[in-house]
Amino acid sequence: MTKTPPTSIVRRTGWPTSVSRPVVTPLQPSVVYASPDPDALDAQYMEKSGYTYAREGHPNAEVLAQKIDMLEGAKNGIITGSGMSAIGAVFLGLLKAGDHVLGGDQLYGRSLRLMTQDLPRLGMTTSFADPTDVAAMRAAIRPETRMILVEVMSNPTIRVADMEGITALAQEKGVLLVVDNTFTTPRLYRPLDAGADIVVHSVTKLLAGHSDATLGYVATRDPDLRTKINDANVTWGLTPSPFDCWLAERGLHSFDLRLDRAEATAGKLAEALAGLPQISRVIYPTRPDHPDHNRAMGLLGGRGGNMLSFELKGGRAAANALTRAAPEIAFAPTLGDVGTTLSHPASSSHRGLTPEGRAALGISEGFFRVSVGIEDAGLLIAEMTKAVAATKS
Ligand SMILES: *Cc1c(COP(=O)(O)O)cnc(C)c1O
Predict the structure, then answer these.
(1) Burial of 212 (C-beta count, 10 Å sphere; 0-12/13-18/19+)
(2) Per mean pLDDT, which range of 44-53, 227-236, 268-277, 341-350 is the poorest?
(3) Atom of ligand 1 lying closest to residue 334 CA
């Protein structure tokens, strides 16, 4: 028997070379990167370039960050493992015990929880004020206020914050302004251009757009803030998977087209719903009866986005009848998907509130939020009209 020299399939042989290059961004799942020698590794750390370990950064996150940067007019944006970890990285990187954070009073449910339960456990204080009322925001500022967190459009009542007033207030008081731009997207509003310090996104929603990747994004124009937020992201391990980044980049390529299409449909759907006798109220920013209509038209450049809410007569029984009569429209607590989704805050995002608490926000048992998708407008309006008609008792 002749002896063959030992070989090992675990020794990676590298990537075949080619003069041509892939047109599609390669998916790079490698967790570790090998360097030629200690000097080269040293230089890499000094120059903060290249890759060493995926939690510290990887090419798919960088490619995705650069593309969202273009949309937001930002540089060196940071990708995180979820929208919540984007907000978490901002808090963990920039706050210390004793700091006060002022939030808009209708933030995303988990953001509210983070502020009411988790920040106080770490020694920070928090309070909330109505972001459509800048005088209320001003009155809530304390000497130790370090940060304001607001969403431009509230969920699910689609109120539009007084962003000009809040931005001026934050600048006057020397308080960091953090804007969650998930609902508005950079097509409707660009927080950094308008003077905010930090923009955050749940990339999971409209930017990625296909409900198959959970990711977040943070950007700031201040390099010192950027370093602190990035360190929190890397140290607390809030970092994203290459595969999710790769999926999100693919989704992002059609973001503009999807948003334009969904927005055009949302305007038509709002009008169709407003004409139905079983509907008592439709909330959409470009409608003259929207409570913040004038501000919204100025702030969002006449655009309304893809989100609308409406109130059905007949309470919970009518709400059950509506979702049962529209099985084609996913009754699911998310937004920004290619397909239209319906959510019912009283039984989901706002179930923790008392009926009186919900009533104060204008959320009844007949209240629905619609995230309009990219399906044919005529089809969607026909399905919704049929479902609303089925609620007649
Ligand atoms: C969904 C959402 C978040 C959280 O994002 P995840 O990606 O689900 O962690 C934060 N803010 C807003 C406005 C959202 O809609």
Answers:
(1) middle
(2) 44-53
(3) 1
